Amino acid sequence: MSAHPLSGSVVAVVGASGELGSRLARGAAQRGAHVVLVGRDERRLSCVVEAVPVVVGDLADAALGERVAATALEHHGRLDGVVNAAGVVAFGPLADTDDAVLEELFLTNVLGPLWLTRRVLPALSNSRGFVVQLSAVVAEQPLPGMVAYAASKAALTAADRALGRELRRLGVDVLDVRPPHTETGLAGRPLAGTAPRLPPGLDPDAVAGRILDAVEAGESELASTHFG
Fold first, then answer.
1. What is the domain range of residue 41?
2. What is the CA radius of gyration of the chain?
3. Is 149 considered catalytic here?
4. Structural domain tally of the chain?
5. Full-prediction pTM beyond 0.90?
6. For residue range 28-43, what is the model confidence (pLDDT) as tens digits?
7. CATH number for the domain harbouring residue 84
8. Residue of 91, 115, 130, 149 marked catalytic
9. 111 in a structural domain
10. Which of these, 42, 57, 182, 189, is most buried using a 10 Å CB contact count?
């Protein structure tokens, strides 16, 4: 992966109303990036970074990427990077997991990111930009009681690895990020089930900073072992 200095770049952060996404957006802005905030909660987005473009939408909307690219081009004339920090989780045995939960896990964690990437590629290829996808440690270490969630994150990681090779000819880099459990509160908001007892998670500020460092340094992936 090439180094991508953030100063002066235009970066869209999807899931910017969440705990980790908001930190990624603020961190990118502090490093000099022009950010575009993308998320479902307009009120929360307005509190992340002041006076920047906002796109209200959900990864379940296949056309979200078109609006993200159009907004970046309208306000800044380019799009240099997309960071997808949106995601959902569910817990419990597969036998007890409703079909609708399985569908939503894969819609948000796999299909949505692929739809998003497809639609921002023309803008990113023009700028020889980058895509960052937030996968999870369970893509490497799947656990019982998280079968569907682990499968969705493993699918995203597999897609990222293939895309990294596929997009080389376009000059677009893909960074797959698989942080260990991080204190974002996501485990307390599952689609179904109850989270098992988890050890204390990583500091989301530290995780966001590590991800932005990797973008600027041109690291090709961030496995769980690359965090503190």
1. 10-226
2. 16
3. yes
4. 1
5. yes
6. 999 999 999 999 999 9
7. 3.40.50.720
8. 149
9. yes
10. 182
